[in-house]
Hints:
Elements: H1 3-9, E1 12-18, H2 25-35, H3 44-49, H4 56-66, H5 73-89, E2 92-99, H6 101-105, H7 111-129, E3 132-140, H8 145-154, E4 164-168, H9 180-188, E5 192-197, H10 203-212, E6 217-220, H11 228-237, E7 241-243, H12 245-250, H13 262-267, E8 272-274, H14 279-282, H15 286-297, H16 301-314, H17 319-337
Parallel strand pairs: 1-2, 2-3, 3-4, 4-5, 5-6, 6-7, 7-8
Helix pairs in contact: 5-7, 8-9, 16-17
Bound molecules: hypoxanthine and zinc ion (ZN).
Amino acid sequence: MDRASFVRRLPKADLHVHVEGSLEPEMMFELALRNGIQLPYDSVAEVRAAYEFRDLQAFLDIYYQGAAVLVTEADFHDLMLAYLERARADGVRRAEIFFDPQTHTARGIGFPVFMHGFLRAIAEAEVRWGISVGLILSFLRHAPPHEALATWEASAPFRDRLLGVGLDSSEVGNPPELFVDVFRAAREAGLHVVAHAGEEGPAAYITGALDTLGAERIDHGVRSEDDPAVVERLVREQIPLTMCPLSNVKLKVFDRIEEHSLKRLLDLGVMVTVNSDDPAYFGGYILDNYLAVADGLGLDDDDLARLARNSIEASFLSPDAKAALLHEIDQVVELAAQGQPSPEG
Ligand code: HPA
Ligand code: ZN
């Protein structure tokens, strides 16, 4: 079995994907036309050519601009459904998906519009493709904490449809401690808690996210390597890192994939996972991310199966659902070792 088929057949969870970051240029044009919005580009090729980013902020500027084409419930539905169909083709069986309410509420688009669109797509995908999906409401850390609290209040009618809350956007200078109050409210409401930390920001933000926000997973966390005490803690407490290797190269967190910290941290015993982040902007979905680290860091099939197992373990699925998917991973690994294709063909 070739490597791409092996990775595709491994049941996987995508635990770090921003639905707004799955907006492909083709859909951007389609929605712009549908909604009478003028784009600053003339063609899909021109959009793709603009996706050269100096750093996280340069990306975010273009990402928020792109999201402006999302207006109606149908737009949010189509965006979510397209991501889920694409993810499923890569063997994603569980997706825990970020969305950024403030990007939409700031334009006068309310919770019912995007939530109904997302939820309708998710219900369809669960029936059609058997993919399991959870939504993580992500607060924008470049906006003031009182806005995050207002967003939390506005989410009240949809609270029972949320899996968790997260924290994203411009990291440096916007430490996790600013968002203690809103994260406490979310924890008290029984939601899971994750946070982006240690992407461009220092390892201290990882500690801050764990200690002050109660984060159960760290999104990115690649800079944990700068502080051995942080790495030691991640290993001891088996705190998952949701890494996104293609994103890190596109945003110049690492100059080359060969320099990525994933393999070093994996070998030290950190619960590392591979995810897609903003796949429409960074040149690939989850399979591309697995294959990029396999090639760039010399991972073997055991490493790849371990990453898939970690993704299931690090998900917020029930213990029974995790056990079933882990068992399927064992079967795929066994059949691959025998040189046979898996039962699904
Ligand atoms: N980092 C921070 N904020 C984001 C990202 C990211 O990778 N993607 C979308 N918002
Ligand atoms: Zn992210």
